[in-house]
Amino acid sequence: MTLAHASSQGVEPISLSPEEQAAIARVFEHGPTVFGALSTLRTRRIGIGYRSETGEDESFDWSSHLVVRQREGPLAFESASQPRPLSEVEEALIAWAALGPNGIITADIPVQGDLSSLLSWAGRTVPASSNDQAVDLFIINDSGVHLYRPGTERMAPVEIQGPEDYWKILHWYRAGRTTISPRRPDVAWATAPPGTHNVNTMGALQYNANRPGSTWFLPVGDVGLEWVNLLLSSYQFGGFYLQDPETNKPAGCDAWIRPGFLEVGFPIPIFDELALMQHVTEVACVVQNIRLACESMGLGAWAMGGYSDDLLLGAYPEVAAGLGFSFLDRDAARNPSKTATCQGLPGVLDARMAPSRKFPSAEALVRNVVELRYQRGAHLSPVDNWAERNGGPFTEEAREAILQHPRTHIPDWVVEAAIDTVKYIIDKYGCAPSHINPVRAKFSCQVHHVDMEYYRKFHTGGPEPYLATPQLLSHFHDWHAGTPNPYERGAHA
Predict the structure, then answer these.
(1) How many CB atoms lie within 10 A of CB 476?
(2) Which single residue of 173, 305, 322, 396 has CA 20 to 30 Å from 165?
């Protein structure tokens, strides 16, 4: 039935090799339970090919081309193994665990309780504010920078029901992955403004960031989308309006301040922070999913957050090109928080912020977010309805009742009030959102094959360090059969 549904949607099942089928089966059928993985979950920051406080000069030719030196310390270590990149199936499994398709959401929100705020009924492995699909996954490895975006069509209410569905993991990775750049971004430890001597924009902890052999899973969020959608939801169902913190007056929406419409003021900076918090919650779930997947697979997962994501995205091209995202050149006098304002990566991720290439005005911005739920093919559209096409979540009778109910539709006055609010913010502060960056990439996870020799040298635990789980010690035997196993005792003798 699943295969027939896939074929009916124009998706032909792909054939997996016996090794690929066995690898995927290993984590779905034989890996530790969630509670078992949580009991041994550790960072395991030192990977094959990495170094730690050796006190020796090293050339970062793969990224910043800097010659750097981390001062010598008591945990001095240089990996004796050459970098060992993840395999395709390893990356595919981790990407799917991070935010891959897993079926159809329940959408169990009453129509009278803001069901219309949902921007999608396509399920992913992570929760999201209004299920807005606002976080994408960038994958950085030795072959460059890639965007993992498997899309919003679903082949079944629960996508992975058994071995017959394992092919989807590699299908989504191959069909939903676009190469953005053929090389790693030019950022690494010690990337800093020219002429500085004690500045490290990537953070003191990140000496091995962006190393050859590693795969950097980078969630990048369109916070602007969450911001606009939250504004619409607040005006329709919350009853509060955005308030200028300098004047304590409505931010352009005076015409709708009356009983039954907008009644309580909410300062713009606090509202911006609320949208950012919603984004952070989703990204935290993405990173935790990656860590749990890696724990199950016997890989190291290094959660990172102490770097400048503005630099990484491309805000300071005089220091590093980064990922090449574009930024709005704001008037410093109209930028109260002095934040960088990212507009996205043209043609790849056009952030919901204004003014920008795709959204030059408040009206263009707000109406785009409104139409995400009502345009042809969307889940609340009467034409080519997503739910009918994808088979859920509601019965035909329930779906029709939802589509016909007036509270399913955002009232015209809410749209107009939101447009006027956004226009006010743009006119006063130069852009909307105004107090936060519309694009964030602040929390991520770098994955690698663990260098067991580091932990054997420095850590306690008996015959093997306490963090050496069975799936870690057997990783090369299970996942890379026929290749040298660096975990065997005496492999580096």
Answers:
(1) 20
(2) 396
Q: 223-233 and 362-371 are packed helices; what angle lies between their axes, rounded to 10 degrees? A: 80
pLDDT, tens only, 245-262: 999 999 999 999 999 999
Rounded CA separation 32/38 (Å): 9
d(CA 275, CA 128): 12
What's the number of CA atoms in the CB half-sphere (13 Å) around residue 306? 11
Give 290-328 pLDDT, tens digit per residue: 999 999 999 999 999 999 999 999 999 999 999 999 999
Q: Residue type at 197? A: H
| Spans of the chain, pLDDT less than 50 | 1, 4, 8
Residue 150, classed as helix, strand or coil, is coil
Q: How many residues are listed for the chain in this entry? A: 493
Cβ partners under 8 Å of residue 95, min gap 6: 137, 139, 148, 172, 173, 177, 217
Distances (CA, A) of 319 to 275, 322, 427: 29, 9, 31
For the chain, give the longest Cα–Cα distance.
Answer: 79
What is the DSSP secondary-structure string of 280-333?
Answer: HHHHHHHHHHHHHHHHHHT-EEEEE--S-HHHHHTS-TTT--TT--EE----GG
Nearest CA-CA partner of 29 in 296, 299, 300, 301 = 296
Contact 247, 425 (CB under 8 A): no
The number of beta carbons lying within 10 Å of the beta carbon of residue 227 is 29
Beta-carbon contacts of residue 19 (< 8 Å; ≥ 6 apart):
481
CA dist., res. 466 & res. 39, Å (int): 12
Angle at which helices 18-25 and 167-175 pack, to 10 degrees? 100
**Rounded Cα gap, residues 275 and 258, in angstroms:** 25
- Which of 52-62 are b and which e, b meaning 16 or more Cβ less than 10 Å from the residue's Cβ? bbbeeeeebeb
One-character DSSP codes across 428-460: HHSSBS-SS-SEE---EEEEE-B-HHHHHHH--
- Contact 9/122 with Cβ under 8 angstroms? no
Say how many C-beta atoms besides its own lie within 10 A of residue 99's C-beta: 26
Instruction: Please give the single-letter amino acid code of residue 86.
Output: L
